[in-house]
Amino acid sequence: MSQRPPAPPSLQELRKEIDAIDEGMHRLLMQRGEIIDRLIQVKQTQEVGSAFRPAREAAMMREIVQRHRGILPLDTVESIWRVIISTFTYVQAPFSVHADISASEAAMRDSVRFNFGFTVPYVAHFSAQAAVEAVAKSKGDLAMVSATSSRTPWWLELEADGAPKIIARMPFIERADHPAALPVFAISRVADSALVTEVETFSVRVSGWNAEVARALSPLAEIVAVPDTAFDGAALLVSVTGATSIDKIRAALIEAGASVRSVALVGSHATRYTVPPTGPKS
């Protein structure tokens, strides 16, 4: 006589399993907080300013994406992880996020809340310039500005030694229907040892800027340009990956008929993780 298959678990049993997992996650978060408290004492983070660690965060984010499986949306995992990291960073060294809302207030607010949650203070500004200036005057704050367009060359404020720099490009996970899809740069002061330099960003000032020069550069790098009609030139923010170099950008500008007036490194960030249309592996 064959045995009957075991009865499926009851709803009550499944809910008990979920409750146990929820309790375990909460206890792990509290345990993480205890470790962060010890970390503050060891590293005296509050005395040295920014606690941002872009290179470590990018590496951890890649690991999360690569191991993610199942029905839970990757966006949810990304946001939960970002809020946990940002909140514990805030606990180590309190900071505010200064956001440029001139392009889209709703989209920028979504990006800030997706990446930093509601514990970190949010300060809105009506221009990228104002957001960057606020960070420059702070001890360890962070600015969020558009990564694809600008009315003013705010990045000129990042050229000087000791000035804040671009430290990240968000969203880190790139996909067409991302819930916080606004392309933004994060700007702050970070120790050189904490930076990730897979993509370097340069402030390039040129004379002789025109549509033909812009077309010559477009295959080589991502560029934000603010024309300067007074000098027949432009201020460029150029993002250079390992596939090219700033020397190639300089040569392309000259070949296209422009003159390079100055070049300054103003930051760096991780290569974005692109999720294919079919989504991550399941």
Automatic annotation (TrEMBL):
How would you classify this enzyme at the top EC level? Answer: isomerase
| InterPro entries with a match to the protein in the record | Chorismate_II_sf (IPR036263), CM_dom_sf (IPR036979), CM_II_prokaryot (IPR002701)
Q: What is its EC number?
A: 5.4.99.5
Domain (Chorismate mutase) ranges: 5-96
Q: Which GO terms describe its biological process?
A: chorismate metabolic process
GO molecular-function annotation terms?
chorismate mutase activity
Q: What is this protein called?
A: chorismate mutase
Q: Which organism is it from?
A: Bradyrhizobium yuanmingense
